[in-house]
Write a structure and sequence with these properties.
The complex is a heterotrimer of chains A (about 425), B (about 150) and C (about 400). With about 425 residues, chain A is α+β, with helices and mostly antiparallel strands. Chain A has 13 helices and 17 strands. Chain A folds into 2 domains: about 260 residues, Thiolase/Chalcone synthase (Peroxisomal Thiolase, Chain A, domain 1, 3-Layer(aba) Sandwich), CATH 3.40.47.10; about 150 residues, Peroxisomal Thiolase, Chain A, domain 1. In chain A, the strands form 4 sheets. In chain A, strands 1, 2, 5, 8, 9, 10, 11, 12, 13, 16 and 17 form an 11-stranded mixed β-sheet that branches. Chain A has a two-stranded antiparallel sheet with strand order 3-4. A two-stranded antiparallel ribbon of chain A has the order 6-7. In chain C, helix 2 runs parallel beside helix 8 and helix 9 crosses helix 15. In chain C, about 60% of the residues are buried. Classes of the chains: A alpha+beta (about 425), B mainly alpha (about 150), C alpha/beta (about 400).
Chain lengths: ~425, ~150, ~400
């Protein structure tokens, strides 16, 4: 069994692009949530989201053939940027080569729903019916790599080619749990010696009419547009739903021995992974939180870490009426009456769906690197049913050696990661 | 299918509500008695109510919101007389206690509208929706092929 | 890898254009095709009615999974990918003796790994729920247009719903993921299950693929990429005219467990899963060099073959053994749904091993007399994969 470490990391999020921006945003307890700018949301009940503020699609270098399709899908560009930052840190900008065997370097990434450029479709709709023949005619005229392509697939291919990865690739679409699952699967592959390194992470953007509209229809989103940056309020008595966010995070994972051999700096160690299913109902989480408890316990057992050794929990913490108290109960079931501090990064950046688990893992990296607990912002009146130390409003210095990150997804998928500073455990 | 000519049958509001509830819960209308409680007896969940609202909007060609599907909608009172910050007014509580004598502690002072959900019956829904469409022609001419 | 822990297939479940597992397997033995030109996806110019696109495809029959549902209501959350996943998963669990009251505890610790794609979102289904007045709002992507959408539409759009609904329907609670969009993802799911079983992370895994290639967006993709067969002949994998695919909606599931676990449950092993591995671009030769089994398999189920050149390449690879295995592919009779195709290949390999014979209608040349080991292989521009199944893994010791 190998020890698994992170030697490169990259991120783009509503707090900005690049690790320095992200860490500064956490340090300063900033919010990336504001009025939606990327489409005209005036007719929508939800008009706020966490958008990446500073990535110019035109400035991202892309391979010629795939560029038209990639430039139209923000999440693809988020991933390419984040992956480049992670690979630059891990490999100094070189493609995968000796000492790595390219066939033993893979990818395990998470992404979200493909909307297939709804405007392309809608221009052929009249009277509620789609003119398929007209759509096909346009499809055949358009450049080969644009118009209803699968940008996620292209983005993964593009990054793999650029980096020279030739190992297996997994593209995980498990919604809110996907990012944590992708990291967890990468961890398993490396620990078991199936591969020597994996580029992992997640990318997503549902900040578009279909995403905002769809989640609005389900009543899942906060409609407190007037609060703007203050609308994402996990654990607060006034919370009224989650705020959508977008972004990407990428991590280069390798075995500790590989990192040591080539003198790579270890940012953190991945200690354990737990994954479970609620198998309860489509509409509601299990009121006994059995799936969440099982995933947390499994992650801790996998890491060989007792609950008392966990210094920080990065919560799923969506800010919906149901999730937060349920998660609080689940945490107390696992950690007892004095659980470690818990905070929700979603208070600052919103819910990044397929990218959430990955970007929140980056928040854990911040905590480990700066020995500072990220805050839950917008916490003015904590819900007594969320009986936790939620690190309200301001980050707090703390001794953080081991942290747990939770992702509890739509459909009942639960994924938990245990991360630690590189020398948290004895060899 | 029979050869006899179909005759127009007038569906009451209650019958239309039953048909909609049955559709959403994948049941036969016969399995949806008026007195049955949506959550407790028929196994509805929060998503079913979201869907039911959509189906009812289509059925009655009206726009509905969550309040119209709550237990207090049957009282036919303006909202300000039903609740203050979600807590039911004494007036609304008294009226509900008369209609639901078995409700006991569920209708204690201080109860919020959200906590009334277990009491919601098909009949209460029908009255609430009926209130909303009051003024419209609620009896629909429906032709059933036999 | 702890290769001494033997992993077995104890259940297989299919949903294809021919129906369930038995119907599909019987049809293949009888050489019956599920492909037809008579389906709803040919395109006509709206003004003249003239046909602008005509192609063969496999249409699934009656994908409703109601028979497996304790709660009929949950069908309303299911798009076609989800329905087929529930059906095929249920059949595989049934085949493995994992349905029924006594089996509930076994399902609690079962892992679940799926592949799906390329899209769960049936565009026209969505549009049909809008209605005329909303179309203008929809064109402008204003909320009023979206608001007219049926509230359950988001469920049918979410890619992970097949996994969620299989989990809910059958009470499966273990380690899980759902991947997308291609055939290599199904191979990754099988490989991952194999590793986890050998490592003891779980004692049982339900692995499947459920894919809808017969829909507006997938058909557009295939057509633009030049991969949509215009004739039945073009869709026949071993024909010299083989040039493209006939799209299908399909699902295939297998139940994998350790040999010890199968024995504990007194379930026979239908086949042993000896190996499963996936790699990235340009890796097929390396993959075969390092992982092709010895002794040779008698049969290789080839998935992902696009045209005659691909078949020629597969035949060349098969010639590495002194007795070259025969190639097999059900693409010409069942059509292709990439995310399901590798698991389908594994399921068909399993049925072949169970019966000891492969349907001649799907075999390239003369079917081997006795089949004790079968490979499943996949290759496209971005990935390569193989799996090895056999009737007795004692023979696989290299």
């Amino acid at each position: 069994m190998n020890r698994v470490v992170i030697t490169g990391a990259g991120v783009t999020s509503p707090l900005g692009t690049g690790k320095p921006q992200f860490f500064a945003g956490l340090r300063e307890a900033r919010s990336g949530v504001r009025a939606i700018r990327s489409f005209d949301a005036t007719s929508f009940p939800v008009r706020i989201a966490g958008e990446v503020p500073d990535l110019d699609p035109g400035k991202v270098a892309l391979p010629f053939a795939q560029a038209p399709a990639l430039r139209r899908d923000p999440k693809a560009l988020f991933f390419i940027e984040a992956a480049r930052e992670a690979l630059a840190q891990a490999l100094g900008g070189r493609p995968i080569d000796a000492p790595f065997d390219p066939f033993r370097v893979g990818m395990s990434v998470a992404t979200g729903l493909e909307i297939f450029h709804t405007p392309d479709l809608l221009s052929h709709v009249s009277s509620g019916r789609l003119d398929r023949a007209g759509l096909l005619a346009q499809a055949m005229r358009e450049p080969a790599e644009a118009f209803m392509e699968i940008p996620s697939d292209l983005a993964v291919t593009c990054v793999a080619r650029e980096a020279g990865l030739r190992g297996p690739r997994a593209v995980n679409v498990s919604a809110c749990a996907a990012g944590s699952q992708a990291l967890g699967e990468a961890f398993c592959l490396l620990r078991d010696g199936e591969l020597d390194a994996v580029l992992s992470g997640g990318f997503d953007s549902m900040v578009n009419p279909i995403g905002v509209g769809g989640f609005s229809l389900l009543g899942a989103l906060s409609t407190s547009n007037h609060l703007g940056a203050g609308a994402s309020r996990p654990f607060d008595v006034g919370r009224d739903g989650f705020v959508l966010g977008e972004g990407a995070a990428a991590f280069f994972l390798e075995t500790a021995s590989s990192a040591e051999r080539r003198g790579a700096r270890m940012l953190a160690e991945v200690l354990g992974y737990g994954s479970s299913l609620d198998a309860f109902r489509v509409s509601d989480p299990d009121e006994h939180e059995r799936g969440a408890v099982a995933a947390m316990r499994a992650a801790l057992a996998d890491a060989g870490v007792a609950p008392a050794a966990v210094d920080y929990i990065n919560a799923h913490g969506t800010g919906t009426r149901k999730n937060d108290p349920a998660e609080a109960r689940a945490i107390r079931a696992v950690f007892g009456d004095a659980p470690p501090p818990v905070s929700s990064t979603k208070s600052q950046i919103g819910h990044l769906i397929g990218a959430a688990g990955a970007v929140e893992a980056m928040a854990v990296l911040f905590a480990l690197a700066e020995q500072t607990l990220p805050a839950t912002i917008n916490l003015h009146n904590q819900d007594p049913e969320c009986a936790l130390d939620c690190v309200p409003n301001r980050p707090r210095p703390a001794r953080i050696r081991v942290a747990l990150s939770n992702s509890f997804g739509f459909g009942g998928q639960n994924a938990c990661l245990v991360l630690g500073i590189a020398d948290a455990l004895p060899t | 299918m029979s050869d006899t000519p179909s005759s127009p049958v007038t569906e009451t509001v209650e019958q239309r509500i039953i048909r909609c509830v049955a559709q959403v819960l994948a049941k036969n209308p016969a399995e949806v008695p008026l007195q049955s409680r949506l959550f407790e007896d028929l196994g509805a969940d929060s998503l079913d109510l979201v869907e039911l609202m959509y189906v009812l909007e289509d059925e009655f060609t009206i726009k509905l919101d969550k309040q119209d599907l709550s237990l207090s909608a049957q009282l036919g009172l303006p909202e300000s007389e039903v609740h203050q910050n979600e807590v039911l007014t004494p007036k609304a509580l008294e009226l509900l206690r008369q209609r639901y004598p078995q409700a006991g502690a569920l209708l204690d002072e201080g109860v919020t509208r959200a906590r009334l959900a277990p009491l919601l019956t098909v009949e209460a829904l029908a009255i609430g929706i009926g209130n909303k469409v009051a003024g419209k022609d609620v009896a629909k001419e429906v032709s059933h092929a036999r | 890898m702890n290769a001494s822990v033997r992993i077995v297939v104890t259940g297989v479940g299919l949903h294809t254009g021919h129906g369930d597992t038995r119907q599909s397997w019987t049809a293949l033995h009888q050489g019956r095709s599920a492909l037809t030109y008579e389906h709803a996806w040919n395109l006509h110019a709206p003004e003249t009615g003239q046909e602008v696109l005509r192609f063969p495809a496999a249409v699934t029959r009656d994908p409703s999974p109601v028979a497996f549902l304790a709660d009929r209501k949950s069908v309303k959350y299911m798009g076609p990918c989800t329905q087929m996943a529930v059906l095929a998963a249920g059949r595989a669990l049934d085949d493995a003796g994992l349905l029924g009251d006594g089996a509930a505890a076994d399902r609690e610790h079962t892992a679940l790994f799926l592949a799906t794609g390329p899209i769960a979102f049936d565009v026209e289904h969505a549009l049909s729920s809008f209605g005329e007045p909303a179309a203008a709002d929809l064109l402008a992507l204003r909320y009023e247009g979206l608001r007219r959408c049926h509230p359950l539409l988001p469920f049918k759009m979410l890619l992970n719903m097949p996994l969620g609904l299989v989990s809910i329907t059958f009470g499966i609670k273990g380690e899980n993921f759902i991947l997308y969009p291609g055939a290599d993802q199904g191979a990754f799911a099988i490989a991952h299950a194999l590793h986890g079983l050998r490592r003891g992370r779980f004692a049982r895994a339900l692995v499947g693929g459920s894919a809808c290639s017969l829909g507006l967006a997938p058909v557009m993709h295939l057509r633009r990429a030049g991969r949509l067969a215009s004739t039945l002949e073009e869709a026949q994998p071993f024909s010299p005219d083989h040039a493209a695919w006939a799209p299908a909606d399909q699902a295939a599931f297998v139940v994998l467990e350790t040999e010890a676990e199968a024995a504990r449950r007194s379930r026979p092993a239908q086949a042993y899963l000896d190996d499963a591995v996936v790699l990235g671009p340009g890796s097929v030769d390396h993959l075969w060099q390092t992982r092709a089994p010895a002794p040779a398999p008698q049969l290789i189920f080839c998935t992902g073959m696009l045209n005659a050149a691909d078949v020629k390449a597969d035949r060349r690879r098969a010639a590495r053994w002194s007795t070259a295995p025969a190639l097999a592919s059900a693409d010409g009779l069942l059509g292709v749904a990439p995310a399901a195709s590798f698991v389908l290949g594994a399921a068909l390999a399993c049925l072949t091993l169970r019966d000891g014979r492969v349907p001649s209608a799907i075999t390239d040349g003369v079917p081997p007399a006795r089949i004790a080991r079968s490979m499943v292989s996949f290759r496209d521009g971005e990935a390569a994969a193989l799996a090895v199944l056999s009737v007795d893994s004692a023979e696989t010791a290299a």
